[in-house]
Write a structure and sequence with these properties.
Blueprint (H helix, E strand, L loop, with lengths): L2 H15 L6 H8 L3 H13 L4 E4 L5 E4 L12 H13 L7 H14 L2 H11 L11 H13 L1 E8 L5 E14 L2 E8 L4 E6 L3 E10 L5 H5 L14 H4 L11
Antiparallel strand pairs: 1-2, 3-4, 3-7, 4-5, 5-6
Protein name: YafY family transcriptional regulator
InterPro entries: CBASS_pafABC_assoc_protein, HTH_11, WH-like_DNA-bd_sf, WH_DNA-bd_sf, WYL_dom
């Protein structure tokens, strides 16, 4: 069994035993490897964001939260390849790039059979030229959107003018490979779009933002015709839930 298959099997073994813990020694015997290898594999799963945890002391061991993990996913080879390409296209400077990376690792760990092979083979044939990540700004924008907080930022517009703004985030717009924060700008008292790579500094304020309709803020702008990506339809309207009728 290669390491990728063993990592997946470790997750499934812990899922099957949950909520009980399994010792490193028991896992080593199960997979016919030494305890050091199992310890290293479990550490790799933790670093990848898989919710495994160690309980010290007598009767302790390793366990996993089954509600925070994925069961085996039966992707077709084409679906696995499409997912691989989509993840490769997610630039490091894109919002939530870090969370996307750990989510991808969890999905990869849950794939089996031909889909897993197809994803691995295609991933080995994709390269990218890295771009500046702007991690501090990106993290501040992510936090403001997630917590619905007011955001203070410094911004350089297309003409090179720099200004300080206080904004209330409404959402994100992606166009031509670039990302924009759409927000109500308190400084300008109007809806504005801020290209993420032009934000030089950002910090969430300790203040809740007022809710703003993303579509309404885009009215009258070059992005007025923006639509929600079709790939996100299943997330915005999950199966079994109907959209509320307009009033």
């Amino acid at each position: 069994m290669n390491r990728t298959d063993r990592l997946y099997a470790l997750v499934e073994e812990l899922r099957a035993a949950a909520p009980r813990s399994l010792t490193v020694a028991a896992l080593a015997t199960r997979f016919e490897v030494n305890t050091r290898t199992v310890q290293r594999d479990l550490q790799a799963l933790m670093e990848a964001g898989v919710p495994v945890r160690a309980t010290p002391g007598r009767g302790g061991g390793w366990s996993i939260d089954p509600e925070m993990t994925l069961p085996p996913i039966r992707f077709t080879a084409a679906e696995a390849s499409a997912l691989t390409v989509a993840l490769a296209a997610a630039d490091a400077s894109a919002p939530y790039a870090g969370a996307a990376r750990t989510a991808a690792q969890k999905i990869a760990a849950s794939m089996t059979g031909p889909s897993s092979v197809a994803a691995q083979e295609l991933a080995a044939r994709i390269v990218t030229l890295p771009s500046p990540a702007g991690s501090a700004v990106r993290a501040a924008v992510e936090q403001a959107l997630t917590t619905n907080s007011v955001l203070r930022l410094s911004y350089i517009d297309a003409a090179g003018r720099e200004s300080d703004r206080v904004v209330e985030p409404a959402g994100l717009l992606t166009a031509d490979g670039r990302w924009y924060l759409i927000a109500w700008c308190r400084t300008r008292q109007a809806g504005r779009g801020f290209r993420l790579d032009r934000i030089t500094a950002a910090a969430p304020a300790d203040e809740r933002a007022q809710p703003h309709d993303l579509t309404r803020l885009l009215l009258g702008s070059a992005a007025a015709g923006a639509v929600r990506p079709a790939a996100l339809a299943s997330l915005t309207h999950p199966p079994g839930k109907r959209e509320a009728p307009p009033r």
